[in-house]
Predict the 3D structure of the following.
Amino acid sequence: MGPGYFPTIISFLLIVFGAVTIVRAFIADGPRIGSIAWKAIILVIGSVLAFAFLLDTAGFIVAATALLLLSAAASERFRFEWQPALGLIGLVAFCSLVFVKGLGLPMPLVGPWLQPMMPAWPGG
């Protein structure tokens, strides 16, 4: 077993579960699905694309914030208030600590777009 064994098994299982779900969708009786939620689809896909674009240019903090805000805006009940803003800050801080600092993933916390805005630290 090499380093690609686990991802290969997981992807195979996802393909099997997806195929079973598609087959069951055509066999099962039930009400027709209503209209497609285009706003939600576009915002969720756009949030992932924004994360991918902003990660190297603006850094993980900005990219994760954009990802969370855009994907949350896909909900019909989305309102930006102070309690969700605190949750957003906490989630971005937690992910920054876990992925960048804890796991050591090579992602800049602050990208080159924001480097001129950062204060110069003494001795650094």
Residues 82 and 94 are 18 Å apart (CA to CA).
